[in-house]
Amino acid sequence: MDPYSLVTRNTVEVVTDEELSALLKKPGRKVYAGYEPSGEVHLGHLVTVNKLLDLKKVGFEIVVLLADLHAFLNRKGTMEEVRTLAEYNRKCFEGLGLVDVTYVLGSDLQLSPEYELLMLKISQEVTLNRATRSMDEVGRQMEHPTVSQMVYPIMQITDIATLGVDAAVGGIDQRKIHMLAREYLPGHGYPTPVCLHTPILNGLDGKKMSSSQKNYISVAEDEESIRKKMNKAYCPKEIEENPVLQMLQYHLFPRFNEITLHRPEKFGGDLTFTSYEALSEAYGSGAIHPADLKRAAGEYMIELLRPVREYLESHP
Ligand SMILES: Nc1ncnc2c1ncn2[C@@H]1O[C@H](COP(=O)(O)OP(=O)(O)OP(=O)(O)O)[C@@H](O)[C@H]1O
Ligand SMILES: N[C@@H](Cc1ccc(O)cc1)C(=O)O
């Protein structure tokens, strides 16, 4: 696959295509994604990790921001709690193959006088209304936002400048914060960041996968638990918004060249697919039973996540 196709596959939006094409020719290009430390790194987060791995393959330098202060500002835990989780999350990311990349702990970056001054300058330009709206899909309990949740997006913009990255990766929920960054950073002498947005994955119940909803598969999940969860997963006849098909599209086909569904001869025997398009078409036509799809996806997922479990066991 050519570099442009690889870095844009499985994205919902690239802002902008022209800027990305130009960036692919720039030496020393650098991209980042930030994560609020959370109890479990799940398959939703893995969508952005996959994108960072694609970008690494085409020569980007990768920065992973473990955004402990952001999680604190967003009322996800005490500073001590989120710092401990940041350590654990880092190991999960390493187990997923994000090695030879730079890990930055948010609070190590964000408390310098230079950082604070830039953050305050940007805060003076962004209206409360836009800061609030940018947090629509990111903030917790936004019916009663705190001042810290207004500081949050301004700091995310300041991260982009301070880390010196050319591009930012995030789920499409990060879009409004990224658009503010594109609008305000040039005025402070920083380049406009190229933004790559990935889709939001549904959880096993068909709603957004989230650690607070317990509808996720963690990247550290053990085999039996993956089997049980897959067995119970919501898997409608429809192709759209189907969490099991999303798993195949965003995680399994990018990692395995072909996917085989094992079935007894009396149910038609094994079926092998070399592309997500062929598989989803077959499923949409009714040629595949949901139970067979769920079982196969579960077994491949166990294979895909095996290195994470092994890495975590050897790095307690
Ligand atoms: N279900 C999901 N599908 C795809 N990407 C996701 C999903 N959940 C989070 N992300 C992405 O992961 C990155 C880090 O998000 P973050 O750690 O804040 O997760 P979150 O939305 O708070 O999830 P959670 O509700 O599980 O804590 C962001 O770029 C976000 O877009
Ligand atoms: N806003 C991201 C986390 C993040 C924090 C700071 C950043 O610079 C980047 C990303 C989220 O929703 O989880």
UniProtKB/TrEMBL annotation:
<comment type="similarity">
    <text>Belongs to the class-I aminoacyl-tRNA synthetase family. TyrS type 3 subfamily.</text>
</comment>
<dbReference type="GO" id="GO:0005524">
    <property type="term" value="F:ATP binding"/>
</dbReference>
<feature type="short sequence motif" description="'KMSKS' region">
    <location>
        <begin position="208"/>
        <end position="212"/>
    </location>
</feature>
<dbReference type="InterPro" id="IPR002307">
    <property type="entry name" value="Tyr-tRNA-ligase"/>
</dbReference>
<comment type="function">
    <text>Catalyzes the attachment of tyrosine to tRNA(Tyr) in a two-step reaction: tyrosine is first activated by ATP to form Tyr-AMP and then transferred to the acceptor end of tRNA(Tyr).</text>
</comment>
<dbReference type="InterPro" id="IPR023617">
    <property type="entry name" value="Tyr-tRNA-ligase_arc/euk-type"/>
</dbReference>
<keyword id="KW-0067">ATP-binding</keyword>
<feature type="binding site">
    <location>
        <position position="32"/>
    </location>
    <ligand>
        <name>L-tyrosine</name>
    </ligand>
</feature>
<comment type="subunit">
    <text>Homodimer.</text>
</comment>
<feature type="binding site">
    <location>
        <position position="156"/>
    </location>
    <ligand>
        <name>L-tyrosine</name>
    </ligand>
</feature>
<feature type="binding site">
    <location>
        <position position="159"/>
    </location>
    <ligand>
        <name>L-tyrosine</name>
    </ligand>
</feature>
<dbReference type="Pfam" id="PF00579">
    <property type="entry name" value="tRNA-synt_1b"/>
</dbReference>
<dbReference type="GO" id="GO:0004831">
    <property type="term" value="F:tyrosine-tRNA ligase activity"/>
</dbReference>
<keyword id="KW-0030">Aminoacyl-tRNA synthetase</keyword>
<dbReference type="InterPro" id="IPR050489">
    <property type="entry name" value="Tyr-tRNA_synthase"/>
</dbReference>
<dbReference type="GO" id="GO:0006437">
    <property type="term" value="P:tyrosyl-tRNA aminoacylation"/>
</dbReference>
<keyword id="KW-0436">Ligase</keyword>
<feature type="short sequence motif" description="'HIGH' region">
    <location>
        <begin position="37"/>
        <end position="45"/>
    </location>
</feature>
<dbReference type="GO" id="GO:0005737">
    <property type="term" value="C:cytoplasm"/>
</dbReference>
<feature type="binding site">
    <location>
        <position position="174"/>
    </location>
    <ligand>
        <name>L-tyrosine</name>
    </ligand>
</feature>
<dbReference type="InterPro" id="IPR002305">
    <property type="entry name" value="aa-tRNA-synth_Ic"/>
</dbReference>
<dbReference type="InterPro" id="IPR023684">
    <property type="entry name" value="Tyr-tRNA-ligase_3"/>
</dbReference>
<keyword id="KW-0648">Protein biosynthesis</keyword>
<feature type="binding site">
    <location>
        <position position="211"/>
    </location>
    <ligand>
        <name>ATP</name>
    </ligand>
</feature>
<feature type="binding site">
    <location>
        <position position="152"/>
    </location>
    <ligand>
        <name>L-tyrosine</name>
    </ligand>
</feature>
<dbReference type="InterPro" id="IPR014729">
    <property type="entry name" value="Rossmann-like_a/b/a_fold"/>
</dbReference>
<dbReference type="InterPro" id="IPR001412">
    <property type="entry name" value="aa-tRNA-synth_I_CS"/>
</dbReference>
<keyword id="KW-0547">Nucleotide-binding</keyword>
<keyword id="KW-0963">Cytoplasm</keyword>
<protein>
    <recommendedName>
        <fullName>Tyrosine--tRNA ligase</fullName>
        <ecNumber>6.1.1.1</ecNumber>
    </recommendedName>
</protein>
